[in-house]
């Protein structure tokens, strides 16, 4: 299969300058959240914002190509979850790591950004948090673009063993590089850049011991019965699209089927991207962006109907 154009090349045409993405800190419920945003020109500020919610173990910078691709046409935002990147890293004894706690941060965070109604792009644990937020604040979510969302693995011995083993910080620390390589999928310049950024964060002590503790806590939370979203997701009213990289080892075809059949009264639309991993825009940027553009376009129609 011919490799797609890189994420950077797909994001802009020849001679185009990418929009400036800046990071600032926003304090929410006593926690500093590293927040990325663009310098959106006034004429696009009325358009529906895109909010990117990363997977566990990743930082907003790993999703920069998405922000740069859409940052010229609308406001774009992303964050580092507590425990990761440049955000606060509370101890698991002080913060209930998991999708519900992450979702509870979104309302005050979006309020601080002046983002009333949004499209949420959630990857992994970010997808689970997006679903929780859509259930709690349905009027604020104009679309859910869920990339391998957590919360849809079937109950059983396999899930129990995986979450227990990965919930052990000492073991997770040893296998974290291998897990990251497996999750990212086939190597591209973008996947290598993500791995280099992870290594750099660890070397700078921005994502070391506390990050391992946070990620292990998230894995343990995913092993709890209340982490199963197949029931609650049926109450989601926002339109949803589910994207899966065909080579994603963390989100199987069976997980995708359970998710698409469970989300909302009519289910979600599923898009499978061949040759891609847990962050599929790194291997299939054009197809990924086309699907996301469709979701954003539909959200604009819904926003106009509500105004």
Describe the structure.
The protein is an alpha/beta fold. The chain has a single domain (7-301), classed as Alpha/Beta hydrolase fold, catalytic domain (Rossmann fold, 3-Layer(aba) Sandwich), CATH 3.40.50.1820. It has helices spanning 7-11, 64-70, 99-113, 125-136, 157-166, 169-184, 189-203, 209-222, 253-262, 285-306; strands at residues 21-28, 31-38, 50-53, 76-79, 118-123, 141-147, 240-245, 269-273. An eight-stranded mixed beta sheet has the order 1-2-4-3-5-6-7-8, sandwiched between helices. Helix 5 (157-166) packs antiparallel against helix 8 and helix 6 (169-184) crosses helix 8. It is globular, with a radius of gyration of 18 Å. Mean pLDDT is 90; it is low at 5-11.
State the main characteristics.
Rossmann fold; alpha/beta; 10 helices; 8 strands
Helix content: 40-55%
State the CATH superfamily name.
Answer: Alpha/Beta hydrolase fold, catalytic domain
- Count of individual domains: 1
Mean pLDDT value:
90
- Can you tell me the CATH architecture? 3-Layer(aba) Sandwich
CATH fold assignment? Rossmann fold
Proportion of beta-strand residues: 15-25%
Which class in CATH terms? Alpha Beta
Q: Note poorly predicted spans.
A: 5-11
Distance between the termini: 45 Å
Strand ordering within the main sheet: 1-2-4-3-5-6-7-8
**SSE string:** HEEEHEHEHEHHHHEHEH
What global shape is seen?
globular
Rounded to the nearest angstrom, the radius of gyration is 18 Å
Largest sheet: 8 strands, mixed
How many strand segments? 8
Structural class: alpha/beta
